[in-house]
Amino acid sequence: MPRPWKLAAVQMDCHLGDIPFNLHQMTARLREAANEGAKLVVFPECILCGYCFESRDEAFAHAEPVPGPSVEVLMLTCRELEIYTVYGLLERDGDRLFNTLALVGPEGLIASYRKIHLPFLGADRFTTPGDRPFAVHDLNGLKLGMNICYDGSFPESARVLTLLGADLIVLPTNWPPEARLNPLHVVLTRAFENRVYYAAVNRVGEERGVRFIGLSRIVAPDGTLLAVSESDQAEILFAEIDPTQARRKRIVHAAGKYELDRIADRRPEMYGPLLQREERA
Amino acid sequence: MPRPWKLAAVQMDCHLGDIPFNLHQMTARLREAANEGAKLVVFPECILCGYCFESRDEAFAHAEPVPGPSVEVLMLTCRELEIYTVYGLLERDGDRLFNTLALVGPEGLIASYRKIHLPFLGADRFTTPGDRPFAVHDLNGLKLGMNICYDGSFPESARVLTLLGADLIVLPTNWPPEARLNPLHVVLTRAFENRVYYAAVNRVGEERGVRFIGLSRIVAPDGTLLAVSESDQAEILFAEIDPTQARRKRIVHAAGKYELDRIADRRPEMYGPLLQREERA
């Protein structure tokens, strides 16, 4: 049986374009979370460099390869503290720019995820859509899937990760006020409909007139809120993640007179080819 | 341009197994809703006959063909009032039993929908899973899609209807207390993620120890609540449905510095074959 994990969701601000400052802050938060027993520490989208760049050149100047400098630094902290972390950054790969998450542990880079769904906002006006499939990563028995911000609006993002076996889906975000229904309703729905743990980790602070609203939450597979920020201020949320809970998809109520399994009860043969088609019918 | 429609969602009780009484009540509600200007009146799941049958024989005894007796009766009311209605019933087709919605107008039966996702509860312990694909029906310019209760837990149900062009998705339900997260969060998410009107119409009352919780709601394409029941008492909700709103999928905020389209921005090529596969990977 996989053991439970203590998860930390770090709702925080950063300084646009100031990677050394941000790395210093992130390292301090890693230490704080590890002191509370966290084994996996998740930061917001683009927390390494900020998000609201005004040009492609400006964004590119604050991007780095993955693995690259920040992975090297954070690996050392993870090794010292015996923890794992997921954090957002801008990645450059040749001439291309991606909105990326790095999953780093004591041995270095374990995996990265390039944001698949892009809104026209901030740095995403200049990034290339993620070109690698959704994937699930095994952390000593915990199966972790990664989405970023706008991915969360598309039910397919969490659904595909669930069908790949995810126990926990993390959603680092940069939610502005217009995205408010996401923390209030969508995040809980993603956990509930997939019966997985779901952790949305948002920015706070403001960049060039764009304010980030906080409201991070960690939701259990049954839709229970395990940890919630009700503000737009910095804080760290903690919750215990038990992979066995996410794998018990069958729900029995009323002494067996009411049973359901929102994964096994799917009817894929009735969904037709539409979900994968490019065009609307 | 299609004209706006006034929709009525009839949250009501019925008497288990007493079709004449229920038809009489439904006819009265049709008249009441039409008096308020409604052109489309939606009733809960299985409202014609009730839901909590204890055996297949008992359920089958209260099922009827579609079209059949209740379609004949309600067609006459629709013709007199110049309206359309959607209502739930148990349908028999040879030896098979389905949990069905009938869409009826002045000319008679327009379409029916057989519930595709079945929980193990009430009459659904004895019904056959819906065997016909999701479909959208054109009511003088309003494109209507139908789901039933547990279908709403599966994002694929509303997604397929949206990709088929639905402006409005109706979800007649029989939600017990255990399904409470559906009205509180999932219904709003379905409207928001698909940018369609979404109307969930629940039962009230109690059948053989199963209590139905009401909490019906009509949600706009932007996730705004247009009409809400906050109780488990009978009432009729009204809202104006403007198909052109549901077809404007592109959202522009902040003078064009923030734009998105939750349908066009999908990346079907990244969802892989998983969404249609039978087995989990």
Short account of what is shown:
With 281 residues, the first copy, chain A, is of the alpha/beta class. Helix content of chain A is 23%, strand content 29%.
Layout of helices and strands, plus pairs?
The structure is a homodimer of 281-residue chains.
Chain A: E1 5-11, H1 19-35, E2 40-42, H2 56-61, H3 69-81, E3 84-93, E4 96-105, E5 108-114, E6 136-139, E7 142-146, H4 155-163, E8 168-172, H5 181-194, E9 197-201, E10 206-207, E11 210-211, E12 217-219, E13 225-228, E14 235-241, H6 243-247, E15 250-253, E16 258-261
Task: Give a verbal description of the structure.
2 copies of one chain form a homodimer. The first copy, chain A, has 281 residues and is of the alpha/beta class. Chain A has a single domain, classed as Nitrilase/N-carbamoyl-D-aminoacid amidohydrolase (4-Layer Sandwich), CATH 3.60.110.10. The first copy, chain A, is 23% helix and 29% strand. In chain A, the strands form 4 sheets. Chain A has a 6-stranded mixed sheet with strand order 5-4-3-2-1-14. Chain A has a 6-stranded mixed sheet with strand order 6-7-8-9-12-13, covered by helices on one side. In chain A, strands 10-11 form a two-stranded antiparallel ribbon. The longest helix of chain A has 17 residues. The interface between A and B is large, with 54 and 54 residues.
